Amino acid sequence: MHGKGNPNATFMFVGEKLSSVEARVGEYFYEQLPAGKLLRAVMEQVQIPVEDSFFTVVCNYATPGDKPPTIAEIRQALPALKETIENVKPKVIAAMGSTAVKALLGRNDTIGEIRGYRFWSHEYNCYIIPTYAPSAVITTPTFFNDFANDLIKVAEAPNLPPGGINQEPIRWYVLKTPSRAIRVLRWLRSINQPLDISLDIETDGFDYFKDDILDIGMSFKDNVAIIFPKWVIERPEVQEELDKTFACEHICWILQNGKFDGQYLKADPKKYGIPFNKKVVCPSVRVDFDTMLAHYCIDERPGTHGLKLWAREFFDAPNYEDELRPYLPTKDTPYSAIPDEVRWKYLAHDVVYTRKGKKVFIEKMIEEGTYDVFQKLIMPAANALMDIELDGVLLDVPKLRALKQEAEPKMEEARKVLEKEAEKIGWSPLAFVRATGSKTLPKELNPKSYPQMQWVAYDLCKMPLFDGKKSISKDAVDAYKHRHPFWKALADYKQVADLFGTYVKGMLERVDADSRIRPDFLIHGTVTGRLSCTDPNLMNIPRKSFVKDLFIAPEDSVIVSVDYKTLEVVVAAI
Q1: pTM listed for this prediction
Q2: CA–CA separation, 456 and 426 (whole Å)
Protein backbone atom coordinates (compact mmCIF):
# COMPACT_ATOMS: atom_id res chain seq x y z
CA MET A 1 0.00 0.00 0.00
CA HIS A 2 1.27 3.49 -0.79
CA GLY A 3 0.60 6.69 1.12
CA LYS A 4 1.17 8.03 4.62
CA GLY A 5 -0.98 8.43 7.69
CA ASN A 6 -3.09 6.36 10.06
CA PRO A 7 -3.45 2.85 8.54
CA ASN A 8 -6.92 2.63 10.16
CA ALA A 9 -7.99 6.18 9.28
CA THR A 10 -11.57 7.39 9.08
CA PHE A 11 -10.64 9.93 6.40
CA MET A 12 -8.67 9.34 3.21
CA PHE A 13 -7.45 12.09 0.87
CA VAL A 14 -6.65 10.97 -2.67
CA GLY A 15 -4.80 13.31 -5.01
CA GLU A 16 -3.65 13.06 -8.60
CA LYS A 17 0.05 12.18 -8.32
CA LEU A 18 3.18 13.13 -6.46
CA SER A 19 4.89 16.37 -7.37
CA SER A 20 8.60 16.22 -8.14
CA VAL A 21 9.39 17.61 -4.66
CA GLU A 22 7.05 15.13 -2.92
CA ALA A 23 8.57 12.23 -4.85
CA ARG A 24 12.06 13.35 -3.79
CA VAL A 25 11.24 13.70 -0.06
CA GLY A 26 8.78 10.77 0.02
CA GLU A 27 5.80 12.80 1.31
CA TYR A 28 2.14 13.02 0.28
CA PHE A 29 0.58 16.50 0.28
CA TYR A 30 3.88 17.68 1.74
CA GLU A 31 3.08 20.25 4.43
CA GLN A 32 6.09 22.40 3.47
CA LEU A 33 4.54 23.03 0.06
CA PRO A 34 1.62 25.49 -0.45
CA ALA A 35 -0.91 22.79 -1.45
CA GLY A 36 -0.15 20.59 1.54
CA LYS A 37 -0.14 23.58 3.86
CA LEU A 38 -3.55 24.70 2.56
CA LEU A 39 -5.07 21.22 2.90
CA ARG A 40 -3.99 20.86 6.53
CA ALA A 41 -5.12 24.38 7.42
CA VAL A 42 -8.63 23.74 6.07
CA MET A 43 -8.72 20.32 7.74
CA GLU A 44 -7.98 21.98 11.05
CA GLN A 45 -10.73 24.57 10.52
CA VAL A 46 -13.40 21.97 9.71
CA GLN A 47 -12.15 19.65 12.48
CA ILE A 48 -10.79 16.74 10.46
CA PRO A 49 -7.97 15.34 12.63
CA VAL A 50 -4.69 14.72 10.77
CA GLU A 51 -4.03 11.78 13.10
CA ASP A 52 -7.24 10.11 11.84
CA SER A 53 -6.38 10.67 8.16
CA PHE A 54 -4.51 8.87 5.41
CA PHE A 55 -2.96 10.68 2.42
CA THR A 56 -2.32 9.07 -0.94
CA VAL A 57 -2.44 9.67 -4.70
CA VAL A 58 -3.66 7.82 -7.78
CA CYS A 59 -0.22 7.67 -9.42
CA ASN A 60 2.50 7.06 -6.88
CA TYR A 61 5.18 8.93 -8.83
CA ALA A 62 5.98 12.27 -10.41
CA THR A 63 5.29 12.70 -14.11
CA PRO A 64 7.71 14.53 -16.45
CA GLY A 65 7.11 18.26 -16.24
CA ASP A 66 4.45 17.57 -13.58
CA LYS A 67 1.98 16.75 -16.38
CA PRO A 68 -1.34 15.11 -15.42
CA PRO A 69 -1.44 11.31 -15.75
CA THR A 70 -2.87 9.79 -18.93
CA ILE A 71 -5.88 7.44 -18.95
CA ALA A 72 -3.49 4.51 -19.48
CA GLU A 73 -1.41 5.58 -16.46
CA ILE A 74 -4.55 5.90 -14.31
CA ARG A 75 -5.65 2.37 -15.28
CA GLN A 76 -2.21 1.01 -14.54
CA ALA A 77 -2.15 2.68 -11.10
CA LEU A 78 -5.69 1.69 -10.11
CA PRO A 79 -4.98 -1.82 -8.63
CA ALA A 80 -2.45 -0.38 -6.17
CA LEU A 81 -4.87 2.40 -5.16
CA LYS A 82 -7.67 -0.14 -4.62
CA GLU A 83 -5.38 -2.25 -2.45
CA THR A 84 -4.55 0.81 -0.34
CA ILE A 85 -8.23 1.63 0.17
CA GLU A 86 -9.06 -1.99 1.06
CA ASN A 87 -6.30 -2.03 3.67
CA VAL A 88 -7.18 1.32 5.30
CA LYS A 89 -10.99 0.89 5.06
CA PRO A 90 -11.84 4.61 5.39
CA LYS A 91 -15.40 5.81 6.03
CA VAL A 92 -15.00 8.70 3.60
CA ILE A 93 -12.66 9.52 0.72
CA ALA A 94 -12.02 13.04 -0.58
CA ALA A 95 -11.34 12.63 -4.32
CA MET A 96 -9.26 15.73 -5.05
CA GLY A 97 -9.02 16.62 -8.73
CA SER A 98 -10.35 15.12 -11.96
CA THR A 99 -7.78 12.28 -11.99
CA ALA A 100 -8.98 11.05 -8.58
CA VAL A 101 -12.61 11.32 -9.74
CA LYS A 102 -11.86 9.27 -12.87
CA ALA A 103 -10.04 6.62 -10.84
CA LEU A 104 -12.52 6.32 -7.95
CA LEU A 105 -15.85 7.00 -9.66
CA GLY A 106 -15.09 6.15 -13.29
CA ARG A 107 -16.54 9.50 -14.43
CA ASN A 108 -15.25 12.13 -16.86
CA ASP A 109 -17.10 15.09 -15.32
CA THR A 110 -15.18 18.25 -14.57
CA ILE A 111 -14.82 19.05 -10.88
CA GLY A 112 -17.12 22.04 -11.32
CA GLU A 113 -19.83 19.70 -12.64
CA ILE A 114 -19.50 17.00 -10.00
CA ARG A 115 -18.34 18.65 -6.78
CA GLY A 116 -20.97 19.05 -4.09
CA TYR A 117 -22.29 15.49 -4.45
CA ARG A 118 -21.80 12.82 -1.80
CA PHE A 119 -21.48 9.47 -3.57
CA TRP A 120 -21.84 6.14 -1.79
CA SER A 121 -19.38 3.60 -3.21
CA HIS A 122 -20.50 0.00 -2.92
CA GLU A 123 -17.07 -1.05 -4.17
CA TYR A 124 -15.18 0.69 -1.36
CA ASN A 125 -18.04 0.67 1.19
CA CYS A 126 -17.64 4.37 1.97
CA TYR A 127 -18.64 7.86 0.85
CA ILE A 128 -16.63 9.51 -1.91
CA ILE A 129 -16.75 13.32 -2.06
CA PRO A 130 -15.21 15.01 -5.14
CA THR A 131 -13.50 18.36 -4.72
CA TYR A 132 -10.76 20.50 -6.22
CA ALA A 133 -7.11 19.58 -5.85
CA PRO A 134 -5.44 21.88 -3.26
CA SER A 135 -2.95 22.98 -5.94
CA ALA A 136 -5.88 24.16 -8.11
CA VAL A 137 -7.21 26.20 -5.19
CA ILE A 138 -3.78 27.84 -4.84
CA THR A 139 -3.76 28.91 -8.50
CA THR A 140 -7.50 29.82 -8.59
CA PRO A 141 -8.46 31.32 -5.22
CA THR A 142 -12.15 31.60 -6.21
CA PHE A 143 -12.31 27.81 -5.71
CA PHE A 144 -11.55 28.21 -2.00
CA ASN A 145 -15.16 28.54 -0.76
CA ASP A 146 -16.20 25.40 -2.63
CA PHE A 147 -13.11 23.52 -1.42
CA ALA A 148 -13.84 24.47 2.21
CA ASN A 149 -17.53 23.53 1.86
CA ASP A 150 -16.56 20.16 0.38
CA LEU A 151 -14.22 19.44 3.28
CA ILE A 152 -17.05 20.27 5.69
CA LYS A 153 -19.01 17.52 3.91
CA VAL A 154 -16.02 15.21 4.29
CA ALA A 155 -15.97 15.96 8.05
CA GLU A 156 -19.71 15.21 8.34
CA ALA A 157 -19.77 12.08 6.16
CA PRO A 158 -18.78 9.51 8.86
CA ASN A 159 -22.05 10.36 10.65
CA LEU A 160 -24.17 9.67 7.57
CA PRO A 161 -26.00 6.34 7.21
CA PRO A 162 -24.05 3.65 5.30
CA GLY A 163 -25.40 2.96 1.83
CA GLY A 164 -26.04 6.57 0.84
CA ILE A 165 -28.33 9.44 1.75
CA ASN A 166 -31.99 8.55 1.56
CA GLN A 167 -33.92 11.24 -0.29
CA GLU A 168 -37.64 11.57 0.28
CA PRO A 169 -39.22 10.94 -3.14
CA ILE A 170 -40.68 13.90 -4.98
CA ARG A 171 -44.33 13.52 -5.96
CA TRP A 172 -46.01 15.52 -8.69
CA TYR A 173 -49.57 15.77 -9.90
CA VAL A 174 -50.53 16.92 -13.40
CA LEU A 175 -53.74 18.96 -13.53
CA LYS A 176 -54.87 17.75 -16.92
CA THR A 177 -58.29 19.41 -17.07
CA PRO A 178 -59.26 23.09 -16.71
CA SER A 179 -61.86 22.26 -14.04
CA ARG A 180 -59.30 20.50 -11.85
CA ALA A 181 -56.78 23.33 -12.28
CA ILE A 182 -59.40 25.91 -11.30
CA ARG A 183 -60.40 23.92 -8.17
CA VAL A 184 -56.76 23.75 -7.00
CA LEU A 185 -56.14 27.47 -7.62
CA ARG A 186 -59.29 28.46 -5.73
CA TRP A 187 -58.29 26.16 -2.87
CA LEU A 188 -54.85 27.84 -2.65
CA ARG A 189 -56.53 31.25 -2.48
CA SER A 190 -58.89 30.07 0.27
CA ILE A 191 -56.07 29.21 2.71
CA ASN A 192 -56.25 32.01 5.29
CA GLN A 193 -52.63 31.93 6.41
CA PRO A 194 -49.21 32.77 4.94
CA LEU A 195 -48.30 30.29 2.23
CA ASP A 196 -44.98 29.73 0.44
CA ILE A 197 -45.46 28.67 -3.19
CA SER A 198 -42.58 28.20 -5.60
CA LEU A 199 -43.21 28.77 -9.29
CA ASP A 200 -41.37 27.83 -12.47
CA ILE A 201 -42.26 27.68 -16.15
CA GLU A 202 -40.92 25.73 -19.11
CA THR A 203 -40.82 27.59 -22.41
CA ASP A 204 -40.06 26.82 -26.03
CA GLY A 205 -37.52 29.62 -26.41
CA PHE A 206 -36.27 32.87 -24.91
CA ASP A 207 -38.49 35.48 -26.57
CA TYR A 208 -41.19 36.31 -24.05
CA PHE A 209 -43.42 37.92 -26.68
CA LYS A 210 -43.23 35.08 -29.20
CA ASP A 211 -42.36 31.72 -27.65
CA ASP A 212 -44.99 29.58 -25.99
CA ILE A 213 -45.14 28.63 -22.33
CA LEU A 214 -45.25 24.84 -22.25
CA ASP A 215 -45.98 24.18 -18.56
CA ILE A 216 -46.31 25.97 -15.23
CA GLY A 217 -45.11 24.18 -12.10
CA MET A 218 -45.82 25.04 -8.45
CA SER A 219 -44.88 23.58 -5.08
CA PHE A 220 -46.82 24.55 -1.94
CA LYS A 221 -45.62 21.65 0.26
CA ASP A 222 -42.27 19.88 0.81
CA ASN A 223 -41.51 17.35 -1.94
CA VAL A 224 -44.86 17.89 -3.67
CA ALA A 225 -45.40 19.65 -7.02
CA ILE A 226 -48.39 20.41 -9.19
CA ILE A 227 -48.07 20.82 -12.96
CA PHE A 228 -50.33 22.89 -15.20
CA PRO A 229 -49.79 21.64 -18.79
CA LYS A 230 -49.92 23.78 -21.94
CA TRP A 231 -53.45 22.89 -23.04
CA VAL A 232 -54.78 23.85 -19.58
CA ILE A 233 -53.00 27.18 -19.04
CA GLU A 234 -53.96 28.35 -22.53
CA ARG A 235 -57.65 28.35 -21.53
CA PRO A 236 -58.82 31.93 -20.71
CA GLU A 237 -60.78 30.80 -17.64
CA VAL A 238 -57.65 29.16 -16.18
CA GLN A 239 -55.55 32.26 -16.85
CA GLU A 240 -58.13 34.36 -15.03
CA GLU A 241 -57.84 32.09 -11.97
CA LEU A 242 -54.02 32.08 -12.22
CA ASP A 243 -53.99 35.88 -12.30
CA LYS A 244 -56.20 36.08 -9.20
CA THR A 245 -53.91 33.62 -7.41
CA PHE A 246 -50.78 35.58 -8.33
CA ALA A 247 -52.41 38.69 -6.81
CA CYS A 248 -53.06 37.00 -3.43
CA GLU A 249 -51.24 38.85 -0.64
CA HIS A 250 -51.09 35.87 1.72
CA ILE A 251 -48.98 33.93 -0.81
CA CYS A 252 -45.22 34.40 -0.97
CA TRP A 253 -44.18 33.61 -4.54
CA ILE A 254 -40.71 32.01 -4.69
CA LEU A 255 -38.87 31.81 -8.02
CA GLN A 256 -35.38 31.07 -9.29
CA ASN A 257 -34.32 33.88 -11.68
CA GLY A 258 -37.84 35.18 -11.31
CA LYS A 259 -37.42 38.01 -13.79
CA PHE A 260 -37.36 35.46 -16.64
CA ASP A 261 -40.58 33.72 -15.58
CA GLY A 262 -42.26 36.96 -14.58
CA GLN A 263 -41.62 38.61 -17.93
CA TYR A 264 -42.85 35.54 -19.79
CA LEU A 265 -46.12 35.57 -17.85
CA LYS A 266 -46.59 39.36 -17.94
CA ALA A 267 -45.58 40.12 -21.53
CA ASP A 268 -48.62 40.96 -23.64
CA PRO A 269 -47.77 41.51 -27.34
CA LYS A 270 -51.08 43.34 -27.91
CA LYS A 271 -50.18 45.96 -25.29
CA TYR A 272 -47.05 46.91 -27.25
CA GLY A 273 -48.43 46.39 -30.75
CA ILE A 274 -46.18 43.40 -31.39
CA PRO A 275 -47.66 40.98 -33.98
CA PHE A 276 -47.48 37.70 -32.07
CA ASN A 277 -50.45 35.64 -30.91
CA LYS A 278 -49.19 34.71 -27.46
CA LYS A 279 -51.61 32.44 -25.63
CA VAL A 280 -50.71 32.90 -21.93
CA VAL A 281 -50.67 36.33 -20.21
CA CYS A 282 -50.96 36.85 -16.44
CA PRO A 283 -50.19 40.50 -15.62
CA SER A 284 -50.55 40.11 -11.82
CA VAL A 285 -47.54 37.79 -11.45
CA ARG A 286 -44.92 39.00 -8.99
CA VAL A 287 -41.68 37.73 -7.47
CA ASP A 288 -41.55 37.92 -3.66
CA PHE A 289 -38.43 35.83 -3.14
CA ASP A 290 -35.82 35.10 -5.82
CA THR A 291 -33.57 32.21 -4.80
CA MET A 292 -30.94 33.14 -7.42
CA LEU A 293 -30.60 36.64 -5.95
CA ALA A 294 -30.71 35.25 -2.40
CA HIS A 295 -27.79 32.98 -3.27
CA TYR A 296 -25.98 36.03 -4.68
CA CYS A 297 -26.38 37.66 -1.26
CA ILE A 298 -24.44 34.83 0.38
CA ASP A 299 -21.95 34.11 -2.44
CA GLU A 300 -21.26 36.85 -4.97
CA ARG A 301 -18.98 34.75 -7.18
CA PRO A 302 -20.24 34.53 -10.77
CA GLY A 303 -21.35 31.14 -12.06
CA THR A 304 -22.45 29.81 -8.65
CA HIS A 305 -26.13 30.82 -8.57
CA GLY A 306 -27.66 28.11 -10.76
CA LEU A 307 -30.47 26.07 -9.19
CA LYS A 308 -28.84 22.71 -9.92
CA LEU A 309 -25.56 23.88 -8.35
CA TRP A 310 -26.97 25.08 -5.04
CA ALA A 311 -29.58 22.30 -4.85
CA ARG A 312 -26.85 19.66 -4.78
CA GLU A 313 -24.75 21.84 -2.43
CA PHE A 314 -27.46 22.25 0.20
CA PHE A 315 -29.87 19.37 -0.42
CA ASP A 316 -27.82 16.61 -2.10
CA ALA A 317 -30.16 16.90 -5.10
CA PRO A 318 -29.56 14.22 -7.75
CA ASN A 319 -28.49 15.26 -11.24
CA TYR A 320 -32.08 15.18 -12.50
CA GLU A 321 -31.20 17.25 -15.57
CA ASP A 322 -29.44 14.20 -17.06
CA GLU A 323 -32.77 12.73 -18.15
CA LEU A 324 -33.31 15.64 -20.56
CA ARG A 325 -30.06 15.28 -22.47
CA PRO A 326 -31.11 12.48 -24.87
CA TYR A 327 -33.94 14.74 -26.12
CA LEU A 328 -31.78 17.87 -26.54
CA PRO A 329 -29.10 16.95 -29.12
CA THR A 330 -28.26 20.63 -29.80
CA LYS A 331 -28.52 23.85 -27.82
CA ASP A 332 -31.21 25.05 -30.25
CA THR A 333 -33.51 22.04 -29.74
CA PRO A 334 -36.76 23.35 -28.18
CA TYR A 335 -38.07 21.96 -24.90
CA SER A 336 -41.23 20.85 -26.70
CA ALA A 337 -39.04 18.03 -28.10
CA ILE A 338 -38.89 16.53 -24.60
CA PRO A 339 -41.72 14.06 -23.87
CA ASP A 340 -44.31 15.59 -21.54
CA GLU A 341 -43.78 13.09 -18.71
CA VAL A 342 -40.00 13.64 -18.73
CA ARG A 343 -40.38 17.43 -18.79
CA TRP A 344 -42.98 17.38 -16.00
CA LYS A 345 -40.71 15.33 -13.76
CA TYR A 346 -37.87 17.79 -14.36
CA LEU A 347 -40.15 20.78 -13.65
CA ALA A 348 -41.39 19.13 -10.43
CA HIS A 349 -37.83 18.81 -9.15
CA ASP A 350 -37.12 22.45 -10.03
CA VAL A 351 -40.06 23.85 -8.06
CA VAL A 352 -39.52 21.53 -5.08
CA TYR A 353 -35.87 22.57 -4.66
CA THR A 354 -36.69 26.24 -5.33
CA ARG A 355 -39.16 26.17 -2.44
CA LYS A 356 -36.65 24.42 -0.17
CA GLY A 357 -34.10 27.12 -0.95
CA LYS A 358 -36.03 29.95 0.72
CA LYS A 359 -35.60 28.73 4.31
CA VAL A 360 -31.90 27.91 3.89
CA PHE A 361 -31.09 31.21 2.19
CA ILE A 362 -32.91 33.29 4.79
CA GLU A 363 -30.82 31.61 7.52
CA LYS A 364 -27.62 32.17 5.52
CA MET A 365 -28.45 35.81 4.71
CA ILE A 366 -29.21 36.57 8.37
CA GLU A 367 -25.85 34.97 9.24
CA GLU A 368 -24.13 37.07 6.53
CA GLY A 369 -25.99 40.24 7.50
CA THR A 370 -27.50 40.71 4.03
CA TYR A 371 -31.15 39.76 4.59
CA ASP A 372 -32.26 43.34 5.22
CA VAL A 373 -30.64 44.48 1.96
CA PHE A 374 -32.25 41.55 0.11
CA GLN A 375 -35.73 42.43 1.39
CA LYS A 376 -35.59 46.21 1.15
CA LEU A 377 -33.39 46.80 -1.88
CA ILE A 378 -32.70 43.76 -4.07
CA MET A 379 -36.20 42.31 -4.39
CA PRO A 380 -37.93 45.68 -5.02
CA ALA A 381 -35.22 46.51 -7.56
CA ALA A 382 -35.64 43.13 -9.27
CA ASN A 383 -39.39 43.66 -9.70
CA ALA A 384 -38.85 47.24 -10.93
CA LEU A 385 -36.26 46.08 -13.49
CA MET A 386 -38.65 43.39 -14.70
CA ASP A 387 -41.14 46.10 -15.67
CA ILE A 388 -38.47 48.49 -16.96
CA GLU A 389 -37.17 45.83 -19.35
CA LEU A 390 -40.68 44.96 -20.52
CA ASP A 391 -41.33 48.61 -21.40
CA GLY A 392 -37.98 48.81 -23.20
CA VAL A 393 -36.14 51.81 -24.65
CA LEU A 394 -37.43 53.59 -27.74
CA LEU A 395 -35.07 53.76 -30.72
CA ASP A 396 -34.97 55.94 -33.83
CA VAL A 397 -35.20 52.97 -36.19
CA PRO A 398 -35.10 55.00 -39.47
CA LYS A 399 -31.85 56.59 -38.30
CA LEU A 400 -30.52 53.13 -37.38
CA ARG A 401 -31.25 51.83 -40.88
CA ALA A 402 -29.62 54.86 -42.46
CA LEU A 403 -26.54 54.36 -40.29
CA LYS A 404 -26.34 50.74 -41.41
CA GLN A 405 -26.09 51.94 -45.00
CA GLU A 406 -23.26 54.30 -44.00
CA ALA A 407 -21.47 51.70 -41.89
CA GLU A 408 -20.22 49.38 -44.64
CA PRO A 409 -18.12 51.96 -46.55
CA LYS A 410 -16.68 53.33 -43.29
CA MET A 411 -15.68 49.85 -42.13
CA GLU A 412 -14.17 49.06 -45.53
CA GLU A 413 -12.20 52.31 -45.43
CA ALA A 414 -10.82 51.42 -41.98
CA ARG A 415 -10.00 47.91 -43.23
CA LYS A 416 -8.03 49.27 -46.19
CA VAL A 417 -5.98 51.53 -43.91
CA LEU A 418 -5.25 48.49 -41.76
CA GLU A 419 -4.25 46.44 -44.81
CA LYS A 420 -1.89 49.18 -46.05
CA GLU A 421 -0.09 49.23 -42.69
CA ALA A 422 0.17 45.43 -42.84
CA GLU A 423 1.61 45.53 -46.37
CA LYS A 424 4.34 47.93 -45.21
CA ILE A 425 5.70 45.24 -42.88
CA GLY A 426 5.38 42.27 -45.24
CA TRP A 427 1.73 41.19 -45.42
CA SER A 428 0.48 39.51 -48.55
CA PRO A 429 -1.91 36.58 -48.96
CA LEU A 430 0.89 34.42 -50.39
CA ALA A 431 3.35 35.35 -47.61
CA PHE A 432 0.70 34.46 -45.02
CA VAL A 433 0.12 31.00 -46.55
CA ARG A 434 3.86 30.29 -46.80
CA ALA A 435 4.55 31.39 -43.21
CA THR A 436 1.60 29.73 -41.50
CA GLY A 437 0.81 26.73 -43.72
CA SER A 438 -2.77 27.93 -44.16
CA LYS A 439 -4.73 25.75 -46.58
CA THR A 440 -6.73 28.73 -47.86
CA LEU A 441 -5.27 31.64 -49.81
CA PRO A 442 -7.07 34.78 -48.57
CA LYS A 443 -8.12 37.40 -51.12
CA GLU A 444 -7.33 40.29 -48.78
CA LEU A 445 -6.57 41.02 -45.13
CA ASN A 446 -9.54 39.97 -42.99
CA PRO A 447 -9.63 41.71 -39.57
CA LYS A 448 -12.04 39.01 -38.34
CA SER A 449 -9.49 36.26 -39.01
CA TYR A 450 -7.57 35.56 -35.80
CA PRO A 451 -4.74 33.64 -37.57
CA GLN A 452 -4.17 36.56 -39.97
CA MET A 453 -4.32 39.20 -37.24
CA GLN A 454 -2.06 37.23 -34.90
CA TRP A 455 0.56 36.65 -37.63
CA VAL A 456 0.68 40.32 -38.65
CA ALA A 457 0.32 41.80 -35.14
CA TYR A 458 3.03 39.65 -33.53
CA ASP A 459 5.20 37.86 -36.11
CA LEU A 460 5.48 40.78 -38.54
CA CYS A 461 5.26 43.60 -35.97
CA LYS A 462 7.78 41.77 -33.71
CA MET A 463 5.70 42.61 -30.64
CA PRO A 464 6.11 40.76 -27.32
CA LEU A 465 3.31 38.40 -26.32
CA PHE A 466 0.49 39.95 -24.30
CA ASP A 467 -0.09 37.96 -21.09
CA GLY A 468 1.84 35.12 -22.72
CA LYS A 469 -0.46 34.94 -25.77
CA LYS A 470 -0.83 36.40 -29.26
CA SER A 471 -3.86 38.30 -28.07
CA ILE A 472 -5.67 40.94 -30.09
CA SER A 473 -8.14 41.66 -27.30
CA LYS A 474 -9.19 45.18 -26.37
CA ASP A 475 -6.62 45.23 -23.53
CA ALA A 476 -3.84 44.16 -25.90
CA VAL A 477 -4.82 46.75 -28.50
CA ASP A 478 -4.97 49.50 -25.85
CA ALA A 479 -1.52 48.50 -24.61
CA TYR A 480 0.20 48.35 -28.04
CA LYS A 481 -1.66 50.94 -30.17
CA HIS A 482 1.00 53.62 -29.53
CA ARG A 483 3.91 51.26 -30.17
CA HIS A 484 3.33 50.40 -33.83
CA PRO A 485 1.36 51.95 -36.75
CA PHE A 486 -0.37 48.63 -37.51
CA TRP A 487 -1.67 48.41 -33.94
CA LYS A 488 -2.90 52.02 -34.15
CA ALA A 489 -4.78 51.16 -37.38
CA LEU A 490 -6.14 48.02 -35.67
CA ALA A 491 -7.42 50.15 -32.76
CA ASP A 492 -9.13 52.53 -35.20
CA TYR A 493 -10.72 49.63 -37.10
CA LYS A 494 -11.98 48.03 -33.90
CA GLN A 495 -13.51 51.31 -32.75
CA VAL A 496 -15.46 51.66 -36.01
CA ALA A 497 -16.39 47.95 -36.07
CA ASP A 498 -17.55 47.96 -32.44
CA LEU A 499 -19.64 51.08 -32.87
CA PHE A 500 -21.40 49.85 -35.99
CA GLY A 501 -21.38 46.14 -35.16
CA THR A 502 -22.66 46.46 -31.60
CA TYR A 503 -24.84 49.54 -31.75
CA VAL A 504 -26.15 49.52 -35.32
CA LYS A 505 -26.25 45.96 -36.59
CA GLY A 506 -26.67 44.57 -33.07
CA MET A 507 -29.59 46.83 -32.18
CA LEU A 508 -31.34 46.28 -35.51
CA GLU A 509 -31.19 42.54 -34.82
CA ARG A 510 -32.68 43.01 -31.34
CA VAL A 511 -35.24 45.79 -31.81
CA ASP A 512 -38.87 44.69 -31.50
CA ALA A 513 -41.77 45.62 -33.77
CA ASP A 514 -42.70 48.54 -31.48
CA SER A 515 -39.26 50.13 -32.17
CA ARG A 516 -38.10 49.36 -28.64
CA ILE A 517 -35.05 47.48 -27.51
CA ARG A 518 -35.25 45.44 -24.32
CA PRO A 519 -31.88 44.90 -22.62
CA ASP A 520 -31.21 42.54 -19.72
CA PHE A 521 -30.24 44.29 -16.46
CA LEU A 522 -28.43 42.00 -14.02
CA ILE A 523 -28.44 42.62 -10.28
CA HIS A 524 -26.16 39.60 -9.82
CA GLY A 525 -23.88 40.41 -12.76
CA THR A 526 -20.89 41.76 -10.80
CA VAL A 527 -18.90 40.67 -7.76
CA THR A 528 -18.91 44.25 -6.42
CA GLY A 529 -22.70 44.57 -6.34
CA ARG A 530 -23.02 47.12 -9.14
CA LEU A 531 -25.78 46.73 -11.71
CA SER A 532 -24.73 45.40 -15.11
CA CYS A 533 -26.48 45.21 -18.48
CA THR A 534 -26.32 42.96 -21.55
CA ASP A 535 -27.97 42.43 -24.95
CA PRO A 536 -27.04 45.26 -25.50
CA ASN A 537 -25.14 46.98 -22.73
CA LEU A 538 -26.97 50.31 -22.43
CA MET A 539 -24.87 51.25 -19.39
CA ASN A 540 -21.73 51.62 -21.48
CA ILE A 541 -22.73 53.87 -24.37
CA PRO A 542 -19.67 55.57 -25.95
CA ARG A 543 -19.70 59.25 -24.96
CA LYS A 544 -18.52 60.92 -28.14
CA SER A 545 -20.40 59.01 -30.81
CA PHE A 546 -23.63 58.92 -32.77
CA VAL A 547 -24.98 56.19 -30.49
CA LYS A 548 -26.61 58.49 -27.92
CA ASP A 549 -28.70 60.09 -30.67
CA LEU A 550 -30.34 56.73 -31.43
CA PHE A 551 -32.36 56.82 -28.19
CA ILE A 552 -35.46 58.97 -28.33
CA ALA A 553 -38.22 59.91 -25.91
CA PRO A 554 -41.76 58.56 -26.39
CA GLU A 555 -44.58 61.06 -26.85
CA ASP A 556 -45.27 63.17 -23.72
CA SER A 557 -41.91 62.11 -22.23
CA VAL A 558 -38.43 63.57 -21.91
CA ILE A 559 -34.95 62.11 -21.64
CA VAL A 560 -33.13 63.07 -18.44
CA SER A 561 -29.35 62.98 -18.17
CA VAL A 562 -28.19 62.09 -14.66
CA ASP A 563 -24.56 62.23 -13.53
CA TYR A 564 -23.66 59.34 -11.22
CA LYS A 565 -20.19 60.74 -10.54
CA THR A 566 -19.06 60.11 -6.92
CA LEU A 567 -22.28 58.16 -6.28
CA GLU A 568 -20.44 55.58 -4.15
CA VAL A 569 -19.00 58.33 -1.92
CA VAL A 570 -22.47 59.84 -1.43
CA VAL A 571 -23.99 56.44 -0.59
CA ALA A 572 -21.14 55.73 1.85
CA ALA A 573 -21.69 59.11 3.52
CA ILE A 574 -25.44 58.42 3.91
Answers
A1: 0.84
A2: 8
